[in-house]
Amino acid sequence: MKRILQDLGMEEIAAIVRDFGEKSFRGRQIFEGLMQGKTIAALPVPQPLRLRLLEEFEDEPVRIVKTFLSADGTKKYLLALSDGNIIESVLMHYEYGNTQCISTQVGCRMGCKFCASTLGGLVRNLTAGEILSEILVVNRAEGGSAKRRAVTNVVLMGSGEPFDNYDEVVRFLRLVTAEGGIAISARNISLSTCGIVPKMLAFAEEGIPITLTVSLHATTDEERERTMPIARAYKIKDILAVCARYFDRTGRRYIFEYTLIEGENSDDAHAMALAGLLRGRPCHVNLIRLNEVKERSLKAAADRQAYRFLGILEKQGISATVRRSMGSDIGGACGQLRASYLSSHTDDEA
Ligand code: SAH
Q1: Helical H runs in 178-291?
Q2: Domains and CATH numbers, the chain
Q3: What is the model's pTM?
């Protein structure tokens, strides 16, 4: 694989172009062209410069392979990386804009029992430029530009554990929020982690005021260990402490995700325990209905119970919502699309 030009900021590109003996304003032109989602071959610079860049850099680090449109307007993009790996990204339409859900790794090694992304383990980390390119190509396909964005909000909730790919993810966050680029405000970005405490602690010091979201999914460490192997390493009380620190540093309210699983974490008693854990904290709870993964035996809690759970939290003074489920008719969420694409293609070869 060649290097990825989208990994670099405007200044870094200008330095490379100067090394080629070009004027540094070409650096800005290249950066701006890339932020419009253009390939190197389509950049508005002289051909010899384009050819020189193509010797060293991938023309199209992320390419749209296929799109799936849901009845509710949600669109799934199947994306190919230059080494042939496949990732997925989802665009959801809301009243306030379009939210894109992006992947940070090919596969995942966290092993959560309810999640499809982790079934085949981790294949590799995405680079910052690959993560950014997910947005650039989708923004362009949706008719947006760097100035008039079709993608207004971003959630790092696709395949992968963002903090298991910490350096590239932080670099991506700096690139995506940079002036002169696609410049999506940190306030419009959410990052979801399974709770890798030391990385969360480091992130609190980066000074990037995104919305920090933590996958809790249980009210005690013992329960959490049953579905999330990472819980053996990091305890709920440490997660709560680092969230409080993030709030001190950024003033940003944080979010806990809580996927309701039948017979596991969704009884009234769990709702009371969760309220006890979170009372008085500047946080919000996002209740998620489990997307049942066919390779796993876990079952979703009934919708009625989800709203009952919500009612208990609210009565206890906890801010909470049940997440709207979108795009479930086009292959479900959380890595299912990539998984089904990969298995159908392996079948073809067999
Ligand atoms: N690695 C990050 C991002 C994962 S995806 C993390 O763990 O937070 C975003 C959310 O979807 C997480 O809360 C994750 O636990 C949840 N999730 C994964 N699989 C799911 C499924 N099948 N049904 C419902 N939620 C799921």
Answers
A1: 197-204, 221-227, 236-250, 268-278
A2: 1-60 (1.10.150.530), 61-349 (3.20.20.70)
A3: 0.95
